[in-house]
Amino acid sequence: MQQPSPQPQPDAETQSANPATSRAPTATPETAKPQTAEPQNSEARIATLPLPVTPAPAHRARTRGRHWFLALSFLLVCAAPVAATAYYLWTYAADQYASNLAFSVRSEEQGSAVELLGGVTELSGSSSADTDILFAYLTSQELVSKVNDRLDLARVWSRVPITSDPVFAYDPTGTIEDLLAHWQRKISIIYDSGTRLIDVRVLAFDPGDAQAVAQAVMDESTAMINALSDIARDDAIKYARDELAVSSGRLKEARQALTRFRNRTQIVDPSIDTQNQMGVLVTLQRQLADALIEFDLLQDTTRAGDPRISQATRRVDVIQKRIDAERQKLGLGTGAEGGVVFADLVGEYEGLIVDREFAEAAYTSALATHDAALAEARRQSRYLAAHIRPTLAQQAEYPERMKFVLLVALFGFLAWTILSLVYYSLRDRA
């Protein structure tokens, strides 16, 4: 079988001289037809493979206008603010000293002896609301005014002239609103709602001034908490005093009514008079029984017309009349109250006694409540517990220069990145 002869291939110099021909050879009708037989040897197979395309030489990158724009924007947005901030902090910013203070509001829960015996409700309550009030008070204009009256905050925070440090120094000619705004910059307050602890940090250009301001803050906070306790105690004492006055007046009226009854009826205690009259009546009834027995014996042992029988009869009649008179006294009053049933007098007297006893019980309870309120007022139910007293700094830790520089660098880089992305997004859409 006859082998097909291999077709001559152009050499490398010819292909390199004619790159168009090497990249896209012109297809002839004969070559366009599919081959039905593959070359048998490896040399013919290699000859039929397409030659690799030689890449065009790369052009040298050139700096364009957008590159200059990015570099300039990076300098303006990121590098320049960082450099300016670092220059100001290490050249003009004055050293500041910190005084730390931490405290919490405590409420006394133990009751007094009078409360335990009388069952009076305690006046103290939870300290959570007091802590919230104190936290709001620490940032109030009232506290700033009181501390300023004690220490002259304008002098404390203007030790460094504002011309030397316009960022951290205070202008002494400012108003109370300006002082409040500067207070919020110099006083850092951290409130933990879970533990009810308040941490305060005071900054000043002198360590003694920082400690003095922190001590003034603690003193004024203590005074405010004591004022809250005084208001609560005054309200409780006022209520107890009013109740005691009402109970005392009611007791006086009950006693005066009982005195008027005794003066009107001339009876001190109707129950005692009733018992005495009942004793007389019982004695008369016993004598009447003896007289009747004696009369019956005389009738059985003597004849008719005996003078002893007539005497016994008169004795029985006299005793019976006396018994009727005593019974009449028990049914009717005497003297100025003639015609009034004695039982009604007893009922009126008992009603007056009940009113007096109720007034005495109410007065006793009101007096116990008043004594408990006074006992509570003698002790401090709410107080400020400072677990960290105002500290005196030995080294200036503020302003935190490196922290400020890093923050400015971070935000400047983020701003530059966002501006760059926005610029390229708008450029691609154009």
Account of the 3D structure:
The structure is a single chain. The chain has 430 residues and is an alpha+beta fold. It has 15 helices and four strands. Strands 2-3-1-4 form a four-stranded antiparallel β-sheet. Helix 5 packs antiparallel against helix 15 and helix 8 crosses helix 11. The longest helix has 59 residues.
Give the strand order of the largest sheet, numbering strands 1, 2, ... along the chain: 2-3-1-4
Low-confidence stretches: 1-36, 110-126, 332-339
The best one-word shape is rod-shaped
- What is the β-strand count? 4
The amount of beta strand, in percent, is 5-15%
Order of helices and strands: HHHHHEHHHHHEEHHHHEH
Q: Which structural class do you get from the secondary structure elements?
A: alpha+beta
Radius of gyration: 57 Å
